[in-house]
Request: fold
Amino acid sequence: MKLELPNSAKNWFSIAGFMIAVVSFSMIVFLFVISTFFSGTHIYLGLIIYIILPMVMIAGLIMVPIGMFWARKHRQASGSELPVLDLNLRQHRNALFIFLVGTTILVFSSAVGSYEAYHYTESVSFCGQVCHQVMQPEFESYQHSSHARVACAECHIGSGADWYVKAKISGLHQVYAVLLDTFPRPIPTPITNLRPARETCEQCHWPKKFYPREERLEQYFLGDEENSQWDVMLSMKVGPVHKSSGFSEGIHWHVDPNNKVEYIYTDERRQEIPWVRYTNLKTGEVTVYSASDSLREIEPAADAANLRTMDCLDCHNRPAHDYKSPRYFINHAISEGSIPKELPGIKALAREICEEEISSSDSIYSFIKSRIDSFYNEEYPEIAEENPGLIRKATEGLYEAYRVNIFPDMKARWDAYPNNIGHLEFNGCFRCHDDGHTDSAGETISRDCNVCHLIKVQGNENAYQTASAFEGLKFVHPGDEVDEEDWQEGLCTDCHTGTDP
Ligand code: HEC
Ligand code: HEC
Ligand code: HEC
Ligand code: HEC
Ligand code: HEC
Ligand code: HEC
Reply:
């Protein structure tokens, strides 16, 4: 049987378009079946099935009418007349039939396809793994966070169609930047359009549900030859406690529905905060704290670009992508035993190694190995001779910790992404709690060491100081290099950078 079609359809452009559409449609069906029967991680398969092939198919389908239009124009050079549909002609009936059947299949499959595409483009593997090199730091740190089972989209994309569209538009822009290799390294933070909002976090955590106290034990290993240990146990005042003496709200006071804390920042990363306004929403009382008297008088416009109302993200800005500082990850590797504490001076050496910037992720291992080997060959030849296993273990241990926290290719590391929880390596809480912001009565935003946490235990196995039940100890700075005035007067960040010390 010969299928008769309008003459205008018999042109090479339309035929080619039609063939492209048919071939890509069959490939979609074929790959879809494969991906359903053989489960596993199909990172790129999804990209092909739900995004690339449908685009090719649609391009093919668009070629058909374009070809027909050209062919008609060509044939009747005179006319601008519209095509005529005559159902008495067999060609026209065939064309109509193909059009209707084709459209039905297309509508049906695009319904299924867009549903799948929706899920696929919201999936963790799409967000985290397709552009592997670009997202590797965020993906790797995410997998080591408490949120490893919370999908990227759950934090980054709010619910509702407007968020979906916003995310896809921003996504298109990103694909473009990756293809042209114009994306910045490190990826800038804070992000503006897909930044999680307070509501996002409150789907799973809400202020009423916080624990009153959370215990933290930190084990430090100092930079001396013995890698001397020093422990600190802090009781974090996370939530409210009801004491007979009164009511103390603790750290989450800032997000109590009755309180509103606003601030003005002067740098993009919001590390400099010269002005803070607290409004008690119940009584209407307003207190302004600022770094100087003249600043206290300013009255920012409600929509000023650098005025922010404090929310979860002002403290928890790295809940899923926390690149730990070398000081922190080396301490942890020593305390879990993956870097042997017996190796003299390993803490100081490891810190020094991490301080240097290296150019590519591929050279991390060889760089660490050569530095550790040459140090022990020169300084402790007897260890290199008799106990090479210890040195190998330290190399492996440091490599494993380095690899998931420092990403040379993307220039992603702790100092590129300040973490606002705490005050040791970034000012974090001390951006406001520095005893330098005063209100009109001269009261400051307190940096008393026992406002946010109680120091319950400090010292080492030779001598531990322990606090009584509801009290905190007076802080003793580890090591013997630092005087009391040093840490009491300045900020911790005056000395602490993450590597030195
Ligand atoms: C628990 C919530 C949460 C989850 C889950 C999450 N993120 Fe994030 N992400 C954040 C926050 C918060 C920021 C920092 C926002 C800011 O400071 O503006 C961020 C920042 C980013 C940035 C900007 C660069 C940077 O590091 O600051 C990228 C890229 C990113 N996330 C990708 C991902 C990917 C990919 C996934 C999934 C593999 C993911 N995120 C999962 C909360 C989350
Ligand atoms: C889909 C649910 C979900 C969402 C959304 C979510 N989290 Fe979590 N979060 C969890 C789970 C699960 C844990 C781990 C269990 C635990 O530690 O209680 C966790 C743990 C935490 C912890 C304690 C552990 C840590 O890493 O210090 C913090 C802080 C936290 N989340 C903050 C946030 C912030 C901030 C946001 C918003 C950007 C957020 N979460 C969004 C589910 C969620
Ligand atoms: C003023 C800074 C600050 C703000 C604002 C803040 N947090 Fe926290 N949050 C902390 C600190 C500090 C801890 C103690 C954790 C630690 O030691 O790392 C904590 C602990 C937590 C924990 C783990 C402990 C627990 O009880 O489950 C969760 C979850 C959490 N915060 C979620 C939130 C959410 C959600 C918001 C916003 C509604 C928020 N936080 C606002 C500073 C803050
Ligand atoms: C934008 C400024 C700002 C930042 C950043 C900030 N705070 Fe505050 N905080 C305030 C103000 C203002 C007060 C109220 C004045 C006061 O009590 O000293 C306050 C009060 C507190 C209180 C006492 C609450 C009570 O029970 O009355 C605690 C605890 C606290 N903050 C912990 C923290 C911690 C922990 C961080 C860092 C994770 C932090 N704050 C970061 C502004 C800030
Ligand atoms: C405004 C609240 C606040 C004040 C005031 C405060 N801290 Fe902290 N501090 C924190 C928070 C929050 C952390 C937890 C950081 C984290 O979760 O990594 C912390 C952590 C620490 C740690 C452990 C650091 C680490 O990363 O191992 C020490 C030690 C410490 N504080 C000492 C002090 C001393 C000493 C003072 C007084 C000069 C002080 N703090 C005042 C909020 C505060
Ligand atoms: C004058 C500089 C200086 C100031 C200010 C300072 N430190 Fe230190 N800190 C040091 C030095 C140096 C070491 C390293 C001691 C060593 O390794 O032998 C150190 C080590 C530490 C350690 C052990 C860290 C580790 O992993 O080995 C902690 C914890 C610490 N400091 C807390 C603080 C806190 C909290 C503050 C702020 C309240 C602070 N320091 C302010 C110089 C300082």
Summary: Residues 214-319+419-494 form one domain.
